[in-house]
């Protein structure tokens, strides 16, 4: 894998230690449904953390808060010491640049070529020159095995290919944090393994911090430094994957795992 297109460790030596993501006392309500209730939660730089737990427990809500697609009702969120909430628009925009996200439904721009999907944000958000953005995008497309699809439209690609483009698009911003929300759930079964292998490669060969929601327990076991079991907006159990998957302490964790494994 060409590492020159990936987040550059030399640019951010501080990333190897300390908290990169921090949520303090975060509360999120939808109407009278309190989804997150004074949640404290942090992810250390360079770590791969997986959130597991039943549907509706608030996993996506956490990722959407970090993407600033939602606002918390209370609490503070920081990324690499930069304020995300509460923050001025300018502070939020800066903090937000540290984060990339890949969604279950790919969410590519349908009217743009594959290449343009990847170059758009580096040019418009980071102010990168078009030439540099294209060079980076081509390197990333090579890495995800789609060098020949630059000019294709998303609709001309398989789900697995679209998700590879979405991963390349997120990495093009050189985020410190990559958020992955059930990124293989919408794929045909035969396409899942390829995307998971790509993510394993990224986890192994980069220092990017990953916060991942997945039902792929073998994948979670492989890449995670820590697994957090979520239930009703709370972390009810946390630990290394060997511990959570083999000797869970909570009945809820055991029940959940026996339903999904
Ligand atoms: N935009 C929204 N409007 C209203 N309720 C929502 C919205 N998004 C999520 N919820 C509710 O918040 C809860 C947590 O949802 P979510 O974070 O998507 O859970 P998970 O990802 O763990 O399945 C659910 O009860 C869901 O119905
Ligand atoms: Mg979800």
TrEMBL record:
This is Amino acid ABC transporter ATP-binding protein. It is a peripheral membrane protein. It is found in: Cell membrane. Belongs to the ABC transporter superfamily. The keyword Transmembrane does not apply. It comes from Streptomyces mutabilis. Keywords: Amino-acid transport, ATP-binding, Cell membrane, Membrane, Nucleotide-binding, Transport. The keyword ATP-binding applies. InterPro entries: AAA+_ATPase (IPR003593), ABC_ATPase_HisP-typ (IPR030679), ABC_transporter-like_ATP-bd (IPR003439), ABC_transporter-like_CS (IPR017871), Ectoine_EhuA (IPR014343), MetN_ABC_transporter-like (IPR050086), P-loop_NTPase (IPR027417). GO terms for cellular component: plasma membrane. GO terms for molecular function: ABC-type amino acid transporter activity; ATP binding; ATP hydrolysis activity.
